[in-house]
Amino acid sequence: MIAITEQENIIPLSTPIVLSAAVFSAKYKRSFADEIIYAIVIFHPAALITSDGHSRECLK
Predict the structure, then answer these.
(1) For residue 22, which of 39, 42, 46 has the smallest C-alpha distance?
(2) How is 24-60 classified by DSSP, letter by letter?
(3) Whole-prediction pTM value?
């Protein structure tokens, strides 16, 4: 797990990411913070590692 955490990329919060997160948050009634993460994964394809059950469902 340490090797994974040492690989970092800083992704700026662009307007498309923030607007998408706002739409997702309103549409699915989930927190804006969670939706920022999902929007980043959509705009910057990456593996999302989570133990959060509803997070896994959202990405299907």
Answers:
(1) 39
(2) HHHHHT--HHHHHHHHHHHHS--------HHHHHHT-
(3) 0.70
